[in-house]
UniProtKB/TrEMBL annotation:
This is Ammonium transporter. PROSITE patterns: AMMONIUM_TRANSP. Belongs to the ammonia transporter channel (TC 1.A.11.2) family. Residues 452-475 are annotated as: Disordered. It comes from the Eukaryota. It is a multi-pass membrane protein. It comes from Dacryopinax primogenitus (strain DJM 731) (Brown rot fungus). Gene3D superfamilies: Ammonium transporter AmtB like domains. The chain crosses the membrane at residues 18-40, 52-71, 118-137, 144-170, 182-200, 212-229, 249-270, 282-307, 378-403. SUPFAM superfamilies: Ammonium transporter.
Length: 475
């Protein structure tokens, strides 16, 4: 009997493998450096390091959890009779990495090795936690975040992933989530908002004035996020297929339309086009097209872009500023609006505009959406959204309470730490030029407000008088 060909087994399609690894790398770049630098630029200066590090940490932590137990919970054999999650287990042997990619619960196979599939699914899991972090920037205790990441991945993310992608009950009933509108965006938007409630708000002065410290750096991150989405949506046919090309084109069409609509609304109602507003419109367009990318036509992508540039705009700029719970819960970057609201808009639009040809190209048995006479798809999309929202309302609350009341780890930094920012949390400053910042003043809550000549007086004999003046102001 001939020896097994480990180099080029019969099932391996080198083109599919090359594209899948490329797509996975593009999605990875969306997190690091994409959202890392975007977060660093879009927050106040004193939170640049902490915000970037929360994203950086989540990426690393998710990978280790993913290969040790979480991948099989999302894409392995069903655990018990309930079709919600797979049996946990590692992907660590060389045989498990070289075998053909296969989802046992759904019967889906791909023409590349399991290692490629594991990494591809990992970058989606990682970016979900990175997006979620955007809701709690500027005050969450980093130690609590270190525990929150593996817990939320294990008890929330993998349930949604298995239910919709791994062969669980939502997939078997025909809910369409092409590339994570529900699994990633509705879940991160819901969980982020719930976590923001449990963590508590930023300091009042930070909520009132949280202007970006570096808009251009935020734009760099936004650009990486947009172009990286070609891999985000283009990789989900699990092949270098015709539908992958359609998904990439539709992604960019919807995103461009959404950005334009958001900018026009800013111009009409606020009289000035805002760069940060354009970034929000870009994000909502990317999010909304995600569940629909390869199953709608180009005109459908334009309509979805128009909806995602207007409905979340209204949600953020009207509802979010006037009504509870949005005014009560401190969602730092508006993740509720840009991901939950936009994800639901996209998911419901999928039920309306999915084409029969697009579904067939994606290897779905669905006969399309309402435009094809299948109004049932709209109902199915609603059920899928409600399940993900309910799952994350419950699990995120349980996880936050477990960290706070069982582990006795505060979810929120103290007010004294919040006054200082990065130095209190990490002992680092995002923009430390020369000796302008003195180590002796690292714990001074007024330091970032002090002019350079006062900082310089902190050396040697004048340090005591500088500290005294700081305390007299009341900070």
């Amino acid at each position: 009997m001939a020896a097994y060909n480990y180099t080029t087994p019969d099932w391996l399609d080198t083109g599919d493998n090359a594209w899948q690894l490329t797509a996975a790398t593009l999605v990875g770049l969306q997190s690091i450096p994409g959202l890392v630098v975007m977060y660093a630029g879009i927050v106040k200066r004193k939170w640049a390091v902490n915000s970037a590090f929360m994203a950086f940490y989540a990426f690393a932590c998710v990978l280790i959890c993913w290969v040790l137990w979480a991948y099989k919970m999302g894409f392995g054999e069903q655990w018990g009779a309930a079709p919600f999650v797979g049996i946990p287990g590692p992907i660590q042997t060389i045989d498990s990495e070289l075998v053909q990619a296969y989802f046992p619960a759904s019967g889906i196979t791909a023409n590349y090795p399991m290692s490629t599939m594991v990494y591809f699914q990992f970058v989606f899991a990682a970016i979900t936690l990175v997006i979620l972090a955007g809701a709690v920037l500027g005050r969450m205790n980093f130690k609590a975040w270190m525990l929150f990441v593996p817990l939320w991945l294990t008890f929330s993310y993998v349930v949604g992933a298995f239910s919709l992608w791994g062969g669980g009950f939502l997939a078997s009933r025909g809910v369409i989530d092409y590339s994570g509108g529900y699994v990633i965006h509705v879940s991160s938007g819901t969980a982020g908002f719930v976590a923001a409630f449990w963590v508590g708000p930023r300091l009042p002065q930070d909520r009132e004035d949280f202007r970006p410290n570096n808009v251009l750096l935020a734009l760099v991150g936004a650009g990486i996020l947009w172009t990286g989405w070609n891999g985000f949506n283009g990789g989900d046919p699990y092949a270098a297929s015709a539908d992958a090309g359609a998904a990439v084109l539709n992604t960019n069409i919807a995103t461009a339309m959404s950005l334009l609509v958001w900018t026009i609304l800013d111009l009409i109602f606020f009289k000035k086009p805002a760069v940060i507003g354009a970034v929000q419109g870009m994000i909502t367009g990317l999010v909304a097209i995600t569940p629909a990318a390869g199953v709608v036509a180009g005109w459908g992508a334009i309509v979805i872009g128009a909806l995602s540039g207007s409905i979340p705009w209204f949600s953020m700029n009207y509802l979010g500023k006037k009504f509870a719970p949005w005014t009560y819960v401190d969602d730092t970057l508006g993740v509720y609006h840009t991901h939950l609201a936009a994800g639901v808009v996209g998911g419901m639009a999928t039920g309306l505009f999915a084409t029969a040809e697009g579904c067939a190209a994606f290897a779905l048995t669905n006969p399309g959406g309402a435009i094809e006479g299948n109004w049932k798809q709209v109902w199915l999309q609603l059920v899928g959204a409600l399940f993900i929202i309910g799952l994350n309302l419950v699990m995120t609350s349980i996880i936050c309470c477990f960290i706070k009341y069982v582990c006795r780890i505060p979810l929120r930094m103290s007010d004294a730490e919040l006054l200082i920012g990065d130095d209190a949390a990490h002992g680092e400053d995002a923009y430390a030029f020369g000796d302008a910042v003195q180590p002796s003043l690292r714990m001074s809550p007024r330091r970032e407000m002090m002019p350079l000549h006062e900082l310089e007086e902190g050396n040697g004999k004048n340090h005591a008088s500088t500290t005294a003046r700081t305390e007299e102001v009341g900070y």
